[in-house]
């Protein structure tokens, strides 16, 4: 008679653990946090260029009006 203990095999799951998902979410949150100020700076720069362009156009229009 064989008196050895039965071998218990752990089933290997194909999903992610909760810790792995939290780490991924944390890394993504850090990336977004670093990206937001850069996007806001680019928006502000574009807004300033648009205002400057409008002022230049008003100056040209006034110059043309006074020249005619």
What report would you give on this structure?
The structure is a single chain. Helix content is 74%, strand content 0%. The model has no long low-confidence stretch (mean pLDDT 89). The chain starts with 17 loop residues before the first helix and ends with a helix. The protein contains one helix and no strands. The protein has one helix at residues 18-67. The longest helix has 50 residues, at 18-67. It is mostly helical and 68 residues long.
Task: Please outline what is shown here.
With about 70 residues, this protein is mainly alpha-helical. Helix content is about 75%, strand content about 0%.
Layout of strands and helices, then pairs:
Layout: H1 18-67
User: In whole angstroms, how far apart are the ends?
Assistant: 116 Å
Give me the Rg, rounded: 32 Å
Backbone structural class: mainly alpha
Low-confidence stretches: none
Write down the overall geometry: rod-shaped
Beta fraction: under 5%
Mean pLDDT: 89
Question: What is the H/E order?
Answer: H
The tally of strands reads 0
Helix proportion range = over 70%
| Individual helix count | 1
State the assembly state of the protein chains.
single chain
Could you describe the largest sheet, including whether it forms a barrel?
A: none
């Amino acid at each position: 008679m064989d008196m050895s203990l039965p071998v218990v095999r752990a089933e290997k799951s194909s999903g992610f653990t909760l810790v792995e998902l939290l780490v991924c979410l944390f890394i993504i949150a850090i990336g977004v946090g670093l990206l937001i100020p850069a996007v806001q700076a680019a928006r502000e720069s574009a807004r300033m260029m648009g205002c400057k362009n409008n002022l230049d156009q008003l100056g040209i229009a006034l110059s043309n009006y006074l020249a005619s």
